[in-house]
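REQUEST ID: PR-0412
SUBMITTED BY: lab tech R.K.
PRIORITY: routine
TASK: structure prediction, single protein chain
INPUT:
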Amino acid sequence: MRFVIGRDGKVTAADAIDVPGGSPPSPASAPMPDRAVVSCVLREFKKLTSPTPEGGNITVVYPVMFSPGS
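STATUS: complete
OUTPUT:
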């Protein structure tokens, strides 16, 4: 996930990005095939708040990994 924290501490933008996971790509680095899950995660990231960042907006890239449940 990549998201931007604005001057007020609210997330102003969020998007799912594919980050290369090495060679060859591992299942952990594969993009999420279920677009509904991606949309849900994006909606939740957009609700996040943080302390006000010093110096203006900041961009965060944060890995989100899913694994099968038991």
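NOTES: Strands lie at 2-5, 11-15, 58-61.
REVIEWED BY: pending
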